[in-house]
């Protein structure tokens, strides 16, 4: 039975949400431990009414642990995941380090739950901008193969961590007060601005964040022929990533059919009434687990094209919720044996 849990990176922004989701969703467990770097070890955490002391992450941390959910920087994930696997523990990893390794399934439970069967100890959760897009693509792709996607993202500052959120708020105050402000989280001022670069320069003028959307989408659908053209932009919004997504399918999918497909899909909420001014907006989608879709319409520039607007909480479905859902899949798959 998978009943002994560890949360790695338990004190970070996503780690905190993972704890909250485990409580909210009544995740079954017998024992749970909270692990973090030396700096955060010793912190007290209340979980399901019991106080726990955060332990320092060491190679011995995973003895007797069945599932570890990790939300750490890439370097920490590179180091701790093999310790866990060595101890017989399955790692659900939020970091970017393991995602594209051949032996590591990259899973979004609404899209490719069957992929967890192929794990060799590590299962990865995708980057937030990919996750909400593939959830939206899935029902369309099942109805008619998606050949091409053109996506522009409007990514919230929380994607860069708590420091990103603070930089927007404090930077905005400084601008309004006419004071000078030193950016740290971002290369440029984010308040009252847009930054059309997330990540580093990676391939033919695309950034690392953009190429994640290409490679991760192809891996999740198991189809390298899906062409993806992304532009990722940091916007002055504290939480929830938004995306305009244009898909070109093998046969045309009308807006009415797309709306019906989205409405039938678990994990998607449609908010789409342009006349009434109703569409998903970051302020309404924060703290929600679903992917929200609106502005569904035909792409009038392309014969088999459909375009829509998609918003999701990048810390929830884009990170913590997806990881907890993968752990739930693992528990269910064991129960079914
Ligand atoms: C960002 N996608 O928004 C990244 C976080 N993983 O910066």
UniProtKB/TrEMBL annotation:
The keyword NADP applies. It comes from the Bacteria. Its EC number is 1.2.1.11. GO terms for molecular function: aspartate-semialdehyde dehydrogenase activity; NAD binding; NADP binding; protein dimerization activity. Pfam families: Semialdhyde_dh, Semialdhyde_dhC. It is an enzyme of class 1 (oxidoreductase). NADP(+) binds at residues 11-14, 39-40, 158-159, 314. The active site is at residues 128, 241. It catalyses: L-aspartate 4-semialdehyde + phosphate + NADP(+) = 4-phospho-L-aspartate + NADPH + H(+). Substrate binds at residues 155, 234. Residues 4-119 form the Semialdehyde dehydrogenase NAD-binding domain. Belongs to the aspartate-semialdehyde dehydrogenase family. Homodimer. This is Aspartate-semialdehyde dehydrogenase. It comes from Bremerella volcania.
């Amino acid at each position: 039975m998978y009943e002994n849990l560890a949360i790695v990176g338990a004190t970070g922004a996503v780690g905190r949400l993972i704890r909250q989701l485990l409580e909210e969703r009544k995740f079954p467990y017998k024992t749970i431990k909270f692990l973090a770097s030396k700096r955060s070890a010793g912190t007290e955490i209340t979980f399901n009414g019991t106080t726990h002391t955060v332990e320092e992450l060491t190679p011995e941390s995973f003895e007797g642990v069945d599932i570890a959910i990790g939300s750490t920087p890439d370097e920490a994930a590179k180091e701790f995941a093999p310790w866990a696997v060595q101890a017989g523990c399955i790692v659900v990893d939020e970091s970017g380090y393991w995602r594209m390794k051949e032996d590591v399934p990259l899973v979004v439970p609404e899209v490719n739950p069957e992929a967890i069967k192929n794990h060799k100890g590590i299962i990865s959760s995708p980057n937030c901008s990919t996750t909400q897009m593939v959830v939206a693509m899935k029902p369309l792709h099942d109805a008619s193969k998606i050949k091409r996607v053109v996506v522009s993202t409007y990514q919230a500052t929380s994607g860069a961590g708590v420091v990103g959120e603070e930089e927007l708020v404090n930077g905005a105050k400084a601008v309004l007060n006419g004071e000078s402000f030193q950016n740290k989280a971002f290369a440029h001022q984010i308040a009252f601005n847009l930054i059309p670069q997330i990540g580093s320069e990676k391939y033919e003028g695309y950034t690392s964040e953009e190429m994640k959307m290409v490679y991760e989408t192809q891996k999740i659908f198991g189809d390298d022929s899906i062409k993806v053209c992304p532009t990722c932009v940091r916007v002055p919004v504290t939480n929830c990533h938004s995306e305009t997504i244009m898909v070109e399918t093998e046969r045309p999918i009308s807006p009415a059919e797309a709306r019906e497909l989205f409405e039938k899909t678990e994990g998607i909420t449609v908010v789409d009434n342009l006349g009434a001014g109703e569409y998903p907006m970051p302020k309404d989608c924060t703290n929600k687990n679903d992917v929200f879709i609106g502005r569904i319409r035909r792409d009038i520039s392309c014969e088999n094209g459909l375009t829509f607007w998609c918003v999701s909480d990048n810390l929830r479905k884009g990170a913590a919720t997806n990881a907890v859902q993968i752990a739930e899949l693992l528990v269910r798959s064991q129960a079914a044996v």
